[in-house]
Amino acid sequence: MIETDILIIGAGPCGLFTVFEAGLIKLKCHLIDALPMPGGQCAEIYPKKPIYDIPGYPEILAGELVDKLMEQAAPFKPGFTLGEKAEKLEKLPDGRFKLTTNKGTEHAAPIIAIAGGLGCFEPRKPPIDNITQFEDKGVEYIIKEPEFYRDKKVVLAGGGDSALDWAIYLSEIAEELTLVHRRNAFRGAPDSVEKVMNLADEGKINLLINSEVIGLNGNGQLKEVLIKHKQEGEKTMPAEHYVPLFGLSPKLGPISDWKLNIDKNAIEVNTLDYSTNIPGIYAVGDINTYPGKLKLILCGFHESTLMLQSAFKYINPEKKLNLKYTTVNGVQGF
């Protein structure tokens, strides 16, 4: 059995940062993730996607952020159980939790920190009858390698941050880039919306609002898309790639059976310390919910930091935790 102070479910950015913050207060961590490598969605789904809201980095690729977080966590020697899903949770006689994965690996810890992002997820697919015929033949739901789209005719669909960010990025790579959005207003960051509008004015993006892709045509490989505009009707346009970026459909999986308070596939927490309704179990990052919740990586970092102050007191009720500053002591000083 693998024993540790804090068992972290999810090795994405929030989980990795938790290792660093826990190390500063002398708590050991072990991480479990269903993916075969650390980094979560940043490593598996969009390693080349630029991120703009990490303090100190005006722009950093998701994969590079994972590398930096792994480097930051390395001095505290975290353990990893990768390629396995957290499945069965039970309480041991000594008060610790025992967690068993789908492959039978057993772990024990007094603290469980759930940092599972969106949990188990799959892309939300648009209701196009023949879309499965073109999957991996011109239809992709996730952009992993932007160079794949260099000098190609690309149609993106969506109105959130992911669609906007990729539209900005691919506008310099694709031969022709079209962004289709079914509404006339976007849900993404105002700065990204402004950039997309400017690129459209410059002719670098074909921006089609109040529109949606309703059909795909091709002979074994995507050749064109059928687009419907609310007022102007239907038209076809050439497309070698169609990428609908409508987000991910989250599923908590086995975690939903752990008797935690759940609201719409997210775990309810107390914002005092991001604790759940079960003492000793916390949830940070996109997997939790509370009034005013923002699903940003930097918010998850903040949540992890406060959570660990509470976790330390839960493990060491008789000890006083003195907050120290890395600017004064340095990591090696803890």
Topology of helices and strands:
Layout: E1 2-3, E2 6-9, H1 13-24, E3 29-33, H2 40-44, E4 50-51, E5 60-61, H3 62-73, E6 79-82, E7 86-91, E8 97-101, E9 106-109, E10 111-114, E11 120-123, E12 153-157, H4 161-170, E13 176-181, H5 190-201, E14 206-209, E15 211-218, E16 222-229, E17 233-238, E18 241-244, E19 248-251, E20 262-263, E21 266-268, E22 281-283, E23 288-289, H6 297-315, H7 326-329
Parallel strand pairs: 1-9, 2-3, 2-10, 3-6, 10-22, 12-13, 12-18, 13-14, 21-23
Antiparallel strand pairs: 4-5, 7-8, 8-9, 11-19, 15-16, 16-17, 20-21
Helix pairs in contact: 1-3, 1-6, 4-5
Describe the protein's architecture and organization:
With 334 residues, this protein is an alpha/beta fold. Helices cover 22% and strands 29% of the residues. The protein has helices spanning 13-24, 40-44, 62-73, 161-170, 190-201, 297-315, 326-329; strands at 2-3, 6-9, 29-33, 50-51, 60-61, 79-82, 86-91, 97-101, 106-109, 111-114, 120-123, 153-157, 176-181, 206-209, 211-218, 222-229, 233-238, 241-244, 248-251, 262-263, 266-268, 281-283, 288-289. The strands form 7 sheets. The protein has a 5-stranded parallel sheet, with helices on one face. Strand 20 and strand 21 (266-268) form a beta hairpin. The two termini are 28 Å apart. The model has no long low-confidence stretch (mean pLDDT 90).
Provide keyphrases for this structure.
334 residues, FAD/NAD(P)-binding domain, 2 domains, 7 helices, 22% helix
Regions with little confidence, pLDDT below 50 for 5+ residues: none
Beta strand count: 23
Shape, please?
elongated
Number of helices: 7
What is the CA-CA span between the terminal residues?
A: 28 Å
**What percent strand?**
25-35%
What structural category characterises the helix and strand content?
alpha/beta
